[in-house]
Amino acid sequence: MKASDFDKEFDDGNDVLANLDLSKAKRTTQVTKRVNVDFPEWMLDSLDREASRVGVTRQSIIKVWLAERIESLNKHQFKHE
């Protein structure tokens, strides 16, 4: 995909995540801490399918979805303050 096409998709508010390889994405200013989370097997299967569909790792899809959810909650909180 050309950068101009990517920019247009983003500017139009479309989901561009599928066009990115987030497998090695890092926030260099963030301190990373390791956590262990137990998931039911059905949830791991669903995570793996979605991660495969967009071409990222299971860990990446979990991080992206959690970040999106936290951002959404933060936006919602600020609207009501």
Radius of gyration: 15 Å
User: Which outline best applies?
Assistant: globular
State the oligomer: single chain
Distance between the termini: 41 Å
Strand content: under 5%
**Main beta sheet: strand number and arrangement?**
none
Descriptive labels:
81 residues
Structural features, described:
It is a single chain. By secondary structure, the protein is an all-alpha fold. It has one domain. The chain has three helices and no strands. Helix 2 (41-54) packs across helix 3 (58-79). The protein starts with a helix and ends with a helix.
SSE inventory with pairings:
Elements: H1 3-11, H2 41-54, H3 58-79
Helix pairs in contact: 2-3
Brief overview:
With 81 residues, the protein is mainly α.
